[in-house]
Amino acid sequence: MAQRWASRVAAPFEDFAFSVHALLQPLSSSSLPRAIQADRLLLGPSFFHLHHKPLFRLSDGSPSHQLKHDNNGTTWFISLLVDLTANSTQDLRVGNKYRIGRKIGSGSFGDIYLGTNIISGEEIAIKLESVKAKHPQLEYEARVYKSLAGGVGIPFVRWFGTECDYNAMVLDLLGPSLEDLFNFCNRKFSLKTVLLLADQLISRIEYIHAKSFIHRDIKPDNFLMGIGKRGNQVNVIDFGLAKKYRDPKTHFHIPYRENKNLTGTARYASINTHLGVEQSRRDDMESLGYVMLYFCRGSLPWQGLKAATKKQKYDRIMEKKMTTPTEVLCRGFPNEFAIYLNYTRSLRFDDKPDYSYLRKIFRDLFVREGFQYDYVFDWTVYKYQKNAQAVAQAAANQPQAEEAEEKAGRTRTAAATAGQTAGAVTDKRRGPVAPRAEGSGMQLRSSKRGVEQQGYSNY
Question: Looking at 35-109, which runs of residues are DSSP E strands?
Fold first, then answer.
């Protein structure tokens, strides 16, 4: 019985991404309204109820309601579809004044949506997490953000709360991640861009550590550029895995432990993290070293390793990290990268990294290379070059297009004239009369079109 009704429910909604896993399980849609989730499917002796409620309060305050089924499957499904479609036009809001828009990304423990402050019109980001998540993290992440509030490159949390079945966090809207920009630049950054980023990245991590937290998931995806006037500023996000490494008042450090599970992203994890050692400040800094080398090289030697299980894959990554000499990993790049990596790997568990020293070695290299602190990153240059190429290509194609259009116009005119003359009809009383050729006064339309700018668009 359950399987039969599950198939009857699922089939009509394939185009709308509906799914029914089993009877008495939620029926949900990711494309039709996010405002509505079928909450219960109750089986009765003579009819079926589908009770559904909004994920978020609708702007008109309309209440939840029920649909009934009288054993006519078609009628019931049509009623449900119309009801859901009608509700999809309603505003989805959190915190009374933030409207939810399209999905723009995903974090460790939730999805991120573009939002709008309906009072000011300002665009913001909204991160959502189901309250039924196995390990809810969003409330904790919001507390970490508030502990870090005021720091350069730390997004500000505007609001946090629960709306029906979802936790929601509203924060500053930022631009693309460094991983996005890395892909945009064909997966290779110049030395100048890496050094410009390194200076800011070290400072962001230093600030987090100064507030008694370690991030524990340092990777390109978790660093986002700003937008507008702050487009050159690196911001750090996703604190779902962050942890206090010391007491904020006494500065008493957490104890050394072993046999810990790997927390973070294996590609950038420190060797000690692979070995199961409790993470501390040194591990964030070592992970940053791998991020910088990833930007320089285009990839890391332990990427793409195959294994039967996740644990075996992590073990292979660890083995490759441990057996790849620093000089091999950094070959072809300035010695400062090897110095950085060797330094971070030499730190003891509770050592405070010398952030100023690490910044200085890269700043000295920057000056020695003759670079300018103009904050012109690779993606800025690459976008300009792509736009210039598009404009040049359009300009080169324009004369050819206009010539082809003119030639086509002459051909059409000649064909029309010839066809109309050949189709003359002889009138016995008046003699042959040919229809007047139309189109002799045809005007050629210009084929010139505006050139669409190509490049990365911010979220």
Answer: 36-43, 48-54, 65-69, 93-94, 98-107
